Amino acid sequence: MTSTQATRTVLVTGATGFIGSHTCVDLLAAGHRVIGVDNFLNSSPRVLDRIGRIADRELDFVRLDVRDRAALDELFRRQPIDAVVHFAARKAVGESVEMPLAYYDSNVGATLGLLHVMGEHGVRDLVFSSSCAIHGTVDKVPIAEDAPVRPTNPYSRTKWICEQILADLCVADPRWHITSLRYFNPVGAHPSGLLGEDPRGVPNNVMPYIAQVAVGRRAELSVFGDDYPTPDGTGVRDYIHVVDLAHGHRLALGHLRDVAGHRVINLGTGQGTSVLELLAAFSAACGRELPRRIMARRAGDVAALVADPTLAREALGWTARHDVAQMCRDAWEFQRLNPTGYDDEGA
Ligand code: WQD
What we know:
With 347 residues, the chain is of the alpha/beta class. It is built from eleven helices and 14 strands.
C-alpha cells in the first residue's frame, strides 16, 4: 500500500460546500496547494475566509460554474493542476424528483465537461464524490462496494451514471486514475466551530434539522416513522464525521495510482445509529431534551443503511476516528456559534 504524499496542486470543485470546505482545510493542512471553484448555488462565499483561518493558509479561489467549459479551460490553461476532487453537484433527493433535468445537467453534464477539459490538459487523476444512495433499498447491511445497485431517484441515478462514465473512460484510456468515494451520511462540523453544515431553506437531512431545533430555529423534529424493522423502530444510518470524510479524500488522492482504472470505495463507520439514538446524542451535546414528534414514514426512505468499511481500511489505511457523540458535539458547536448559518455575519 503505497501512496504519493508529494505536495500537489489540487483543484476542488464545490470548494465552499459542506464536504468540499472541510476537504480544502485537510489538503491545505497537509501542505497541498488548493485551487477551489464554486458557483455559490448552495454555499456561502463567507466560507473562504474561514477555510483560510483554520488552515492558516489561503486557498486560491475562482468563482465559476463547472458547467462553464470555457471558464474551466481557462483555469486549466493558467494553473498547473495535478489532480481534481469533484464535489460540485446538486444533492437533495426530493428536489431531484421535482427537477430531474437540473440534476442531470448539474451532476452529469458538469462532470462530462470537467472530464473533457481535464483530458485536454492531460490531468487524469480524479477523486469523485459519489453516494451510498445508489444502492436504493438494500437486502442486507453492512453494505460492501459490490452490493446491488438500484438507484431510486434522479439524484442517485446521476451518481450511478457518473460512476459508469468514469469506469468506461478508464477502460478506454488507462492513463486515467479515478476513485469514486461512496459516502454514507456525512454530518458534524470542524471542531473550531468555523465550518459546518448550513443548508439553504428547510434542512432535508436529519442532523442539520436537529441542530436547528436545538438552537431554536425549528420547533421540533419530525421523526419519519417508528415502525421500521430496527431496534427502536426508527431509521438507522451510518453517520460519518465530515472531518473523517475529508481525510478519506486526501488519502484517496494519495492512493489513486495504486491500481489501474476506476475504483469504488465506501466511506462509512460500519456503525448504525437510529434517529432516536441520534436525538439522544444531540441532547447530551446541547444539554437539553429536544422536542420531537413521531410522524409517518418519508417516501423513499429505507430502514437501515450501514457501510462495510473494509476496503477503505485495506486500500487507503482509512478508518473513521470520530464517534456519534463527537459528531453531535461538533455540529452543536457550529450551530451555537452560527445560529443562522454563515450569513449570520450581518448579511
Ligand atoms: C436520515 C434518517 C430519515 C429528516 C440522504 C441522501 C443521501 C445523502 C445523505 C447525499 C432517515 C430520518 C430525516 C427528518 C427524520 N445525501 N429523518 N426526520 O435520507 O439517509 O440520506 O442524505 O449524498 O444520498 O439520500 O439522510 O438525514 O435525510 O435521513 O426522521 O427531518 O433520518 O427517515 O431515517 P438519508 P437523512
